[in-house]
Amino acid sequence: MTVDHEDDAGSVPVFTGPVPHIRHVSVDRPWHWLQLGMADLGSAWRVSLTYGAIIAAFSLALTLLVVGSGHVMLMLPLTSGFTLVAPLIAVGLYATSRDIGAGRVPDLGRALQAWKVNPLQVGFLGVLLLLLHLFWVRVATLMYALFFADLSPTLDSLTATLFQSGASLPFLIVGTIIGAAFAAVAFAVSVVSIPMLLDRRTNAFTAMATSITAVRVNLPAMALWAFIIVFLTGVGIATMFVGLIVTLPLIGHASWHAYKDLVTEG
What we know:
The chain is mostly helical. Helices cover 71% and strands 4% of the residues. Helix 1 packs across helix 13 and helix 7 runs antiparallel to helix 9. InterPro entries: DUF2189. Pfam families: DUF2189 (PF09955). Keywords: Plasmid.
């Protein structure tokens, strides 16, 4: 596996402030980010696993609330849309990796309040991601109404409704394509931007432009990174969110190292 990054791939056009530059990296670079993320997870396992457990418990509680309210059909878009807001959720893990790199002792309280470093800009980007998530849920709900107009599944019949009815295949194909488009947009604007807002006194527009540029000039590597994130998140969700206790911190720590590897000052 190649771990040495390649030459600078160019700068990001911004209106004010230092100009971020993007490194071009090899396609297998995400495995190196995972290695660094695993090292951070081992160094700050108490903070990281506690942080992951908090998110997992909240996710499970939200799922039980949806099931208890009778809106079972919302489970699929809510869980599949988790990746849209995950970069915002992981902000405390970025802060923990930053502390480790700076030689500071990781602290759970500091991780939970990491957004306060740049609250307005992190909040602005967070609202955008939340709106994107809500829009995806709305689109998915409309799709369900179009394909399964006369069906109102219970938890027991949800699998049969989605995978064994006559409308299952077209529903899954269209839903996967549209969902992938939402995920691609969220990934492109946030994969670098939120760690950058935590690390630098910059604005959300510069951070999003930097993120999009990083994805554009490193498309093969970032496509692999997106696949790894989706896979690890899927494993976490498929285990009734228990796996998120480990996979979310791993992704969060590795994402910090992805940002530090991809973005430099001009």
